[in-house]
Write a structure and sequence with these properties.
two-stranded antiparallel sheet; four-stranded mixed β-sheet; 174 residues
Length: 174
């Protein structure tokens, strides 16, 4: 007997995302490490920049730091193609974004490591606005090399994000 009150069809973008997540869980090794980090320096930096008239979010600062770290650890910035890992010199940073209707997308900021902090913020805000109006391009949705999934504004402390295949790594923040 089906006691469902409401049925939501997995078609279109919702279906594609569901298929991709299921494929990731089936085909990619999912490994999660949990660690705590002292973010007081990020908070201080945000306050200093704010006092100087520059508005940034903690997420903007995290993007900037992740680009720096990936520059020092290029073995984490890549995608699987067939039976090969293709490491990328350029960092195309995907940002997981929750949309209305429990939909999650992760569009990429291309060449993120070459952008200044203000440019990263502007690019993230642009992707977010276009994601809400279904205006993202296929390359933005499929050509990222590393993903950040940030639940830091929620009450979640730890979670296991699903790898955004074919990418080889992601950072989940609680």
């Amino acid at each position: 007997m089906d006691d469902a009150v409401n049925i939501v069809a997995l078609r279109g973008v919702r279906g594609m995302i569901a298929d991709k997540m299921q494929k990731s869980l089936h085909e990619a090794a999912q490994l999660t490490h949990h660690a705590q980090a002292d973010v007081s320096s990020l908070i201080s930096m945000k306050e200093r920049l704010s006092s100087a008239g520059t508005k940034v979010s903690i997420e903007d600062l995290i993007m900037h730091v992740v680009c720096s770290v990936l520059g020092r650890h290029p073995h984490m910035n890549g995608v699987v193609q067939g039976k090969e890992v293709h490491l990328h010199e350029q960092i195309h940073l995907s940002m997981a974004m929750a949309l209305r209707g429990n939909l999650l997308v992760a569009p990429a900021i291309f060449n993120a490591s070459q952008k200044q902090l203000a440019e990263l913020r502007e690019a993230r805000q642009d992707l977010s606005a276009r994601a809400k109006t279904n205006k993202l391009t296929v390359p933005e949705m499929t050509n990222g090399t590393f993903t950040i999934s940030n639940l830091g504004l929620s009450r979640v402390h730890h979670f296991t994000p699903i790898l955004n295949t074919p990418q080889i790594a992601l950072l989940g923040i609680g």
